[in-house]
Prior knowledge:
Elements: H1 4-16, H2 18-29, E1 33-36, H3 43-48, E2 52-55, H4 76-86, E3 93-99, H5 103-115, E4 121-124, H6 133-152, H7 163-183, H8 193-202, H9 208-223, E5 233-239, H10 245-253, E6 256-263, H11 280-289, H12 304-315, E7 319-325, H13 329-344, E8 349-354, H14 362-375
Amino acid sequence: MKTLEMMIQTLCQAGRCPEETIRSSVKETGKPAVGCFPLFVPEELVYAAGFLPVGLWGGISSFQKSNQYIQSFACSIMRANLELGLSGKYDMLKAALIPSQCDTLKCVCENFKVAVPKVPVIGVTIPNNRTIQAAHGQLLDEFDYLSQALEQVQTADCRPMPLEEAFAVYEEYRAVMMEFINTVPDYLTTISPKVRHLILKAAWFMDKKYYTAQMRELLDALKARPKEDFTGKKFLVTGIMLDAEPVLELLEELGVAVVDDLLCHESMQFRTPTRAGGTVESKLAYRFLDLKGASPLYEPRKPRGDLLAQLARERGADGVLFCLMKFCDPEAFDHPLVKKDLAAQGIPLLSIEHDQLVESTEQLRTRIQGFLEINLS
């Protein structure tokens, strides 16, 4: 019988080794893989078409070939994705879904077609103005287009299923993940910032049905233990992503736990509740229309600061860590609004600029230590 530590180690290893995990998942399920670029794509359509949806969120620290196709002042996620594609790492993919949720993604969608011709590109258009009824109809039309595009790249290994069945798999996944998110604050010693991140990250590279089953086992084992008395400081993390292990290890070293997040890479993938009633296509559409708090999404009144303040109070967070992705304009535009809203509600905010090329954390160590001593002592 697996112990909790063994379960954690297995999922952390899956999150730490994307290529190895994807190849293992393809072999285990018999499904061909389709890549999903950030930030939000309808994975259920990919799953229903008989493919294994996998996340493409960069993850390398050096760039040799991608500078031919994208400027050096683009975010490291997009540069890394192009670099990996040019290096042949994505040749295993039957297609790549690329949404148009920021200016860089729009450019990469076209550049990827030329730079990586072996991987067919399927563009995903999500309406900007998501509060009008026409957006719902546009999304339903977009889903029809995506389903047809996925049919064009299907292979003999694909075993399509009804969308209702695929949606049910993802609904179960989302429910289990929210249970995990709600349980973590009671076990902040066992679930350190790095462990929490790697467990969530593993979901990007595994079949959601298999991943959900493993998470249920982990949750049962975790809840069987007494709740832990964590004496350090609790941070709520927000941004596009925070996957630099040196930074996560630094937080743990300084006695800081991640009590919750509003990261596009992590809980924002499953945090939005599904509406009741209607067809499964309509429910899937409203999952995109009801998204809140992600900087690349158009929102007339940016609610992110208020969402963070409410979540910080619910979780008992001591402060908010704003992880500003380097060269990410939407995040830079959101930052002053979030800072103003949190200050108005008396919630301390620490902002750090970062990317996937973290080589030294000493300056960051000084900033976090100063923040803890001045604001949270």
